[in-house]
Amino acid sequence: MTSEAATLRRIDTVSPLRGLGGLLLVELRGWFPWRALFLTIAGFGVFAMNYFGWRASNTEFGALLLPFLGLWIMMLLLSVVSLTEGSVLGEIERGTASWLVGLPIGRPAVILAKFLAASAGITAAVFVTGTALYPVLLETSGWGRSEFRVSELTEVTGGPIGMWGRFTSLVDFGGWIGLLLALSVFLMFAIAVMILFGTTIRSRTAVFGLGLGLVGAFGAAAFAGSFAAASPAGLIRVIIDVAQGKTPSVVIPFFASLLWTALVLFLAVWRFDRRELA
Fold it and tell me: In this structure, what is the dihedral angle of CA atoms 206, 85, 183, 45, given to the nearest 10 degrees?
């Protein structure tokens, strides 16, 4: 009678991203199709609300474009904050976070899966809505009053966006895609911030409030000069400039925002890796 001895290989290192693929698929099913579809339909609804009011008033094209962009961005930011404030904290409260890390799933994989799925859902909604509405905006950009009176000259030339952009024009399609990209990257930063708060704070109300406050602060910082270009606030400045028909430089704000987002994600992973989940 013979026996064979099995040789066991010692595993010294385990990938912190183990289980990322499977967990990402699960998270993506939470965003597609229903959440992404809801955000897309909501974007169309915001445009329709502005469009019919603008048609009734028969004013300049800027009176449609800028209010639509402002309300659309606000709606997206509120949606990001509300949909992600419990993405990590909710898992911890329900006890599913400790169950997940008990499986062959690394803690960093949990954070990255939630970030990537939310980013994909938000980006899809932004680009589907934005590209579908561009032909409509292009068609309507020639409607309404396009000239200003002599009495309005001071306001048009003196204001930071000229009569609040009433006489602005629509950028070409390439510039519009740049606007959508800037908006998507800013929302990705907001997602990362909400995930970080969820790994640190135990109150959903506090996570929601702090998320709104911080994102709002970055929006206000868009007018803070040189600081804005080196932070996600620069993307808000890019969106404002593109909405006025300008062609701003997007390279520095874009890469700076990606670095900020990566830093926030790193902090979220670090905090989640050290948090007691039981």
Answer: -110
Pick from 218, 47, 64: which is nearest to 133 by CA?
47
CB 260 within 8 A of CB 233: no
In Å, what is the CA distance from 117 to each residue of 2, 21, 129? 53, 11, 18
Cα 134 to Cα 43: distance, rounded to the nearest angstrom:
13
DSSP 199-227: HH-S-HHHHHHHHHHHHHHHHHGGGSTHH
Pairwise CA distance, residues 80 & 211, whole Å: 9
Q: State pTM to two decimals.
A: 0.86
Q: Which of 208, 221, 205 is nearest to 77 (CA)?
A: 208
Q: pLDDT per residue over 189-210, tens digit each?
A: 999 999 999 898 888 889 888 9
Q: What is the tens place of the pLDDT at every residue in 163-188?
A: 445 557 788 999 899 999 999 999 99
Contact status, residue 219 vs residue 236, Cβ threshold 8 Å: yes
CB 230 within 8 A of CB 161: no
User: How far is the C-alpha of 223 from the C-alpha of 231, rounded, in Å?
Assistant: 12
Helix (H) or strand (E) holding 164: helix 162-165
The four Cα atoms 33, 35, 41, 43 give a dihedral, to 10 degrees, of: -130
Alpha-helical regions (H) of 85-141? 89-94, 96-102, 107-140
Judged on CB neighbours under 10 Å (0-12, 13-18, 19+), 67 is middle
Count the alpha carbons within 13 Å of 55 in the hemisphere toward its beta carbon. 8
